[in-house]
Amino acid sequence: MNIEEALYSKLTGDAGVAALVVARIYPNVVPQDIAMPAVAYQRISTVRDMAHDGPTGVAHARFQFTISASTYSSARNVANAIRVALDGFSGLMGGVGGVTVEAVFVENDFDGYNQAGGEQVVRMDALVIHQE
């Protein structure tokens, strides 16, 4: 399992997130004509730790979650549920065969608006430190 699959599993398995978006969580972009609210996630960057004798197997992956909703309060509620599910998490993510996560830090979030689709948007960045 890769870290993207583990994040998807973590979020869709979290009661607070699932109550708001069910499984409407997609890589890179929310498809058109999907019920709102919905979430897209994408890897922004990855830095891998190195030691004197080579790679350590630890990656620092930065993900951005884009939450789209018909109302601002709905977008904020989903963003807060994702923050609660991820911020400070450490352990096995994704269940058996999952990814060992050393720590997740939700680093920031900011508001936006998708004028083309008319959706309220919240973007949230999280740093996921994990074993590869």
The helix fraction, in percent, is 10-25%
* Tally of structural domains: 1
Class from helix and strand fractions: alpha+beta
CATH architectural group: 2-Layer Sandwich
Find the CATH superfamily.
Answer: Phage tail protein-like
Average pLDDT score: 95
Q: Ranges with pLDDT <50 over ≥5 residues?
A: none
- β-sheet strand percentage: over 45%
Q: Could you tell me the number of beta strands?
A: 6
Compute the number of helices. 3
Q: How large is the radius of gyration?
A: 15 Å
- Find the CATH topology: STM4215-like
Strand order of the largest sheet: 1-2-3-6-5-4
Sheet bearing the most strands, described?
A: 6 strands, mixed
Order of helices and strands: HHEEEHEEE
Q: In one word, what is the shape?
A: elongated
The span between the termini is 10 Å
The CATH top-level class label? Alpha Beta
Properties at a glance:
about 130 residues, alpha+beta, STM4215-like, 3 helices, about 50% strand, elongated
Description:
β5 (99-114) and β6 (119-131) form a beta hairpin. The chain is elongated and about 50 Å long. α2 runs antiparallel to α3. The protein is an alpha+beta fold. Strands 1-2-3-6-5-4 form a 6-stranded mixed sheet. It has a single domain (3-131), classed as 2-Layer Sandwich (STM4215-like), CATH 3.30.2000.10. 24% of the residues lie in helices and 49% in strands. It has helices at residues 3-12, 15-21, 72-86, and strands at residues 25-27, 38-51, 54-69, 91-93, 99-114, 119-131. It has 3 helices and 6 strands.
